[in-house]
C-alpha cells in the first residue's frame, strides 16, 4: 500500500494565503486546489498521514465534508490549529494521535506536528508547522507540509532521507 505524508493544509484559513504567499486568490480556491492536488496523488486504497493543522479550528461538520472529498485512509497527528473537540466528533479520520511512531518502507519514522531542534532519535522525524523547506532541524528530520511540496502530499522516496544506519 502506498503511503503519503502532508501537513499544514489550513483548510478554511483565509489569512494563511497571505502569510505563506500561497498561489490562491481566495479561501475557496485554496480549499478546492488543495483537495484536487491531494486527489491527483492519492488513490482510495492509499494511506495518508496528516501531521497537523488540517484546518483552522474547523467544526466537525466542516472537517467531515472536507475529509469526504479526500481520497485514502487518513490518519491525523494533531497540530496546534486542530480543534480537539471537533476532531473527537469527526468521523473521517482512521486515527487521531498527538505523536505517532510508524514503519513505512522499512524506515522507522516519528510523526509529530512540531520540529524538534537537533533531532537525533533512532527514527527519522517527519513534521510540519514551519511551512518552509528552508527550515531544517538536522539531517534526521523533514518538513512534509504542503507549502514546500507543491501543495500536495509527499511520498517518503521524495524526501531525500539520510541513508539507513547513519
CATH superfamily: Metallo-dependent phosphatases
Q: Structural class of the secondary structure composition?
A: alpha/beta
Number of helices: 4
Estimate nothing, just give the exact number of structural domains.
1
Helix and strand arrangement:
Layout: E1 3-6, H1 16-19, H2 27-41, E2 47-50, H3 60-69, E3 73-77, H4 84-89, E4 95-97, E5 100-104, E6 107-111, E7 124-127, E8 141-143, E9 154-155
Parallel strand pairs: 1-2, 2-3, 3-4, 6-7, 7-8
Antiparallel strand pairs: 1-9, 5-6
Report on this model:
The chain starts with a strand and ends in an 11-residue tail after the last strand. The strands form two sheets. It has a five-stranded mixed sheet, with no helix packed on it. Strands 5-6-7-8 form a four-stranded mixed sheet, with no helix packed on it. It has helices spanning 16-19, 27-41, 60-69, 84-89, and strands at residues 3-6, 47-50, 73-77, 95-97, 100-104, 107-111, 124-127, 141-143, 154-155. 21% of the residues lie in helices and 21% in strands. The mean pLDDT is 92. The chain is built from four helices and nine strands, in the order βααβαβαββββββ. It has 166 residues and is of the alpha/beta class. It has one domain: 4-Layer Sandwich (Purple Acid Phosphatase, chain A, domain 2), CATH 3.60.21.10. Strand 5 (100-104) and strand 6 form a beta hairpin.
Amino acid at each position: 500500500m502506498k503511503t503519503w505524508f502532508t501537513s499544514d493544509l489550513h483548510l478554511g484559513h483565509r489569512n494563511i494565503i497571505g502569510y505563506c504567499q500561497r498561489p490562491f486568490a481566495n479561501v475557496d480556491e485554496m480549499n478546492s486546489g488543495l483537495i484536487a492536488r491531494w486527489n491527483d496523488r492519492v488513490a482510495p486504497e492509499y494511506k495518508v498521514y496528516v501531521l497537523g493543522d488540517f484546518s483552522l479550528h474547523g467544526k466537525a461538520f466542516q472537517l467531515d465534508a472536507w475529509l469526504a472529498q479526500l481520497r485514502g485512509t487518513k490518519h491525523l497527528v494533531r497540530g496546534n490549529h486542530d480543534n480537539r473537540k471537533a476532531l473527537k466528533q469527526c468521523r473521517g479520520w482512521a486515527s487521531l494521535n498527538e505523536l505517532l511512531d510508524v514503519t513505512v518502507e522499512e524506515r522507522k519514522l516519528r510523526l509529530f506536528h512540531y520540529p524538534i531542534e537537533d533531532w537525533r532519535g533512532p527514527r527519522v522525524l517527519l513534521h510540519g508547522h514551519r511551512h518552509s523547506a528552508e527550515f531544517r532541524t538536522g539531517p534526521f528530520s523533514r518538513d512534509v507540509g504542503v507549502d514546500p511540496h507543491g501543495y500536495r502530499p509527499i511520498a517518503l522516496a521524495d524526501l531525500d532521507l539520510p541513508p539507513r544506519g547513519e
